[in-house]
Amino acid sequence: MRRNPRVFVKREEEAQHRINEKIFATEIRLIIDGEEPQLMSVSKAIAMAEEQEMDLVEISPNATPPVCKIMDYKKFLYNQKRKSKELKAKQSKIVVKEIRFGPNTDDHDFNFKLAHARKFLEEGNKVKAYVFFRGRTIVFKDRGEILLLKFATELADVGVVEQLPKLEGKKMILMINSKKK
């Protein structure tokens, strides 16, 4: 039995921009900081870039003639990556924490769950509190609504009610958003 040897192919990063000899146009518009754009041949622009020990990068390939700039390409890619990472880090993810009650929840359980909800809201999360009605407990809709409204008033200092108690099937749902932003 023959085995096929594994062939490891070196993954070459696909360049987002054409650089140096990969620019196919005969004439380009070269942008130099602080000066007017100049029309010149690619070979002359590459020579200028090599003099400065930098790369000729095609910025706008669809323009006629293509627009190029002399810069350190690796540094340019590094700065782009860093900026995208910073933007990603600044994005906030909204987390919804759920708290479940029964229509006959006692005070101790209520206070215990209230403490958890307070902690969640202080961390900046949303809280979805709901009363789950099982079997014949659906006749106690008013108890569930009173429980959720009491829950909302207790958390008024750290949260804002986003959705008032609303019955959806066997659940009565209340949404509370954090005041902390």
Written description of the protein model:
It is a single chain. The protein is of the alpha/beta class and 181 residues long. It folds into two domains: 65 residues, Translation initiation factor 3 (IF-3), N-terminal domain (Ubiquitin-like (UB roll)), CATH 3.10.20; 83 residues, Translation Initiation Factor IF3, CATH 3.30.110.10. The chain is 32% helix and 28% strand. A four-stranded mixed β-sheet has the order 2-1-4-3. Strands 5-6-8-7 form a four-stranded mixed β-sheet, with helices on one face. The protein is rod-shaped and about 85 Å long. About 6% of the residues have low confidence.
Give the low-confidence spans: 5-14
Average of pLDDT:
84
In order across it, which strands form the biggest sheet?
2-1-4-3
Q: What composes the largest sheet? A: 4 strands, mixed
Alpha-carbon distance between the termini?
A: 65 Å
The CATH class of the largest domain: Alpha Beta
Q: Could you give the count of β-strands?
A: 8
Q: How would you describe this structure in keywords?
A:
4 helices, alpha/beta, four-stranded mixed β-sheet, Ubiquitin-like (UB roll), single chain, 181 residues, 8 strands, Translation Initiation Factor IF3, 2 domains
